[in-house]
Amino acid sequence: MAFSRLLLCLASFIACAVAAPRAVPEGWSLHRRADPDAVLPLKFTLTQSNIHNLDAYLLDVADPRSPNYGRHWTPAKVAETFKPSKETVDAVHSWLVEEAGIDTHKIRLSQKGDIVHLDLTVAEAESLLGAEYFVYRHGEDGKEHVGCHQGYSLPERVSKHIDFVWPTTHLGSTSLLRRDAGVSTVPGFGRVSGAPKIPVDDVSALAAEGCDTAATIDCLRGLYKYDHTLVSGDKNSVAVAEFSNEVYRPSDLDLFFKTYAPDQVGHIPETISIAGGDPTVSGDLGESTLDIELVMGLLGAGQNLSLYQIGEAANSSVFLDPLLGAVDGSYCELEGVSNQGLSDCGNKPTVNVVSISYHFNPDVIDPTISPIVQRECTEIGKLSLTGMTFIASSGDGGVGYSQSGFCQLANGTLQAGNPKGAFLGQLPASCPYVTAVGATSVAPNNTVDDPEIATTRFPSGGGFSNNFPRPTWQDDAVTNYLDNFGPNYAENIFNRSGRAYPDVAANGWPLVIAESGQFVKSGGTSASAPIFAAIVTAVNDARIAAGKSPVGWINPALYSSAFANAYNDVTKGTNPGCSTQGFNAAPGWDPVTGLGTPNFPELLAAFLALP
Ligand SMILES: *[C@@H]1O[C@H](CO)[C@@H](O)[C@H](O)[C@H]1NC(C)=O
Ligand SMILES: *[C@@H]1O[C@H](CO)[C@@H](O)[C@H](O)[C@H]1NC(C)=O
Ligand SMILES: *[C@@H]1O[C@H](CO)[C@@H](O)[C@H](O)[C@H]1NC(C)=O
Ligand SMILES: *[C@@H]1O[C@H](CO)[C@@H](O)[C@H](O)[C@H]1NC(C)=O
Ligand SMILES: *[C@@H]1O[C@H](CO)[C@@H](O)[C@H](O)[C@H]1NC(C)=O
């Protein structure tokens, strides 16, 4: 196949952008050659305008030194600014009509001008794209999908106007979705490392335990000096995002609230169902319960919590797409990655802060997913421009991907079980527009007044992205770490020039929650993200009360000198993986615990000092 594509490129004397030939993606098998007469609904996802300015636009509203700090854009301005240019639309159109001889009437530009739709037979598509189409079958659910895993080619002059063509190389990575509760043992959901949850028989006895052995809501308040009375609840918003069959039971929330947040008894989050998501179906309770109890427990009844419940229809797509498309109609329209399309399109409300305790793909350069994760991260940046804050757990696999400890072997293969190899980042944590949160614990016999350590219950995720370069706002912090405290691994073990994460940390073990009718000690960076999300929500509450905007994208502020006192620095611990000790926590920023855990009064003061 590579041969015939090469011939095509040579024969036509045009420079070709050819995706590298690849193995059939994990979880899928090659089933049969696609029927040449079958009709393929092709989508060409057009390159957006002004994407190279996204960072500058974002820094203008998020850099604490900017006079426009906090002046977020309207969704309409965002959509208009990034809409593909006429030049892009024309280039693709003239290629299809004038060179490929396709009838103009068959070509349809999406309403928002982001996607070119074109129905072609498999044979026509193969000739247009220099590709070979197959039907693939998914191992777990037997689902079939048409694609061309070996890649496709576009004339160079056109390829710069097209982000990707669908359906082609991306088949969906169902098997790689992981939630970040690395310390749970819920039957039916794979926990590969970490320790089992500890059941608590007598919750009243917990009061006598220290925060090193039972991290209650009161412990979190003590650790982060969080004692804030919310006043802007009716104008503020926060959500947790839950995927697939991760659900909660109101009875568990009440059991928890009776002891730890009496004003929340009888309250549940407001469900925002996406792609048919329904939190009342039977499912796994580990993630959703943890996230909801921590956010509602910390914030109390002064703030309502929303629940983005993303349903099963999301499985075959790229996992964040249903959420991003549901809150942004312009993204939904250009969503070229799901063959079924998205069922919820811009019809769901945005919130000021969203907490995501899942990871979706390893952050590895992979032509079948890289263009799509780039586009997802860009979309997170665009939503941040409107004032949203995205917070994600950094993963429970240390320097490997997920609890299964995927690392990259020398021949490029990803293998689970922490083999020797290159470290793998996690998405979305490594997207620079996401605030990634690592996990800490109170050291044995220490109290809330002592500095926490990187949790030892599981390796907290952290490292360096292969897809996203290091942003300027973290240059000083990361260079300081690499120059003074970094390990001496070979050049190819981790990407020193990549976006480094996590940004911050919060307690991740042993959190006391109520699940399945009893109290348990649970955790993971899964817990750290919603705890930090609650803290940011309280900051927004105070800013709104002061007549200011919500904080939106916080990373440039977090790393700035005005925030130097906003953290409890964590300097002890490591995040092992890939047959190494991983990285070590150190003074200042480090790839285990980021800048440290929040010191709420200082963090609040720093954000209130901004316009
Ligand atoms: C929470 O939602 C309920 C029901 O919509 C509403 O009555 C209440 O005022 C809300 N609370 C806050 C703090 O906004
Ligand atoms: C979606 O994923 C869940 C959990 O892995 C699985 O139970 C369900 O069958 C999948 N649904 C579809 C439509 O593939
Ligand atoms: C890569 O190396 C591993 C371990 O040596 C081997 O099991 C695997 O089959 C190799 N994969 C490829 C594509 O060569
Ligand atoms: C913590 O205190 C207990 C009881 O006093 C003691 O047995 C244990 O060795 C201490 N652990 C550490 C790490 O100091
Ligand atoms: C390392 O990161 C840079 C910046 O994102 C990227 O250009 C480069 O391809 C990465 N290198 C590897 C080997 O992944």
From TrEMBL:
Cite the GO molecular-function annotations of the record. metal ion binding; serine-type endopeptidase activity; tripeptidyl-peptidase activity
Coarsely, its chief localization is: secreted
Organism superkingdom:
Eukaryota
Q: Which Gene3D superfamilies match?
A: Peptidase S8/S53 domain
Q: Which residues form the Peptidase S53 domain?
A: 214-610
Region forming the signal peptide: 1-19
What positions constitute the catalytic site? E287 (charge relay system), D291 (charge relay system), S526 (charge relay system)
- Which GO terms are recorded in the biological process aspect for this UniProt protein? proteolysis
**Subcellular location, in the record's words?**
Secreted, Extracellular space
Query: What InterPro entries does this protein map onto?
Result: Peptidase_S8/S53_dom_sf (IPR036852), S53_propep (IPR015366), Sedolisin_dom (IPR030400), Tripeptidyl-peptidase_I (IPR050819)
UniProt binding sites for Ca(2+): D569, V570, G588, D590
A single GO CC term for this protein reads: extracellular region
Q: Which cofactor does it need?
A: Ca(2+)
Query: What are the record keywords, sorted?
Result: Calcium, Hydrolase, Metal-binding, Protease, Serine protease, Signal, Zymogen
Q: Does Nucleotide-binding count among this protein's keywords?
A: no
Where is coiled-coil annotated? none
This protein is called Subtilisin-like protein
